[in-house]
Design brief:
Blueprint (H helix, E strand, L loop, with lengths): L1 E5 L2 H5 L2 H14 L7 E5 L9 E5 L4 E4 L4 H10 L2
Parallel strand pairs: 1-2
Antiparallel strand pairs: 1-3, 3-4
Length: 79
Amino acid sequence: MTIEVCIGSACHLRGSHEVISALKHLISDNGLEDRVELKAVFCMGKCSDGVSVRVDGSQIYSLHPQDVEGFFREHCMGA
């Protein structure tokens, strides 16, 4: 599984660093380091909606730092 997190200017200002940090911890805490690749990418074109995140090239999700755990459980652990 590949999780891409936008680090472009708008997403950076909306908390992409916090999202990446939280995802790193969740991946590690769940022992998924060998199954999940976390990538920083630039603009996904949804700059006004929060931090843009994509899982395995799927749709782009707008994620706020406080919502990372629920997102991870639903879209990553459930996959």
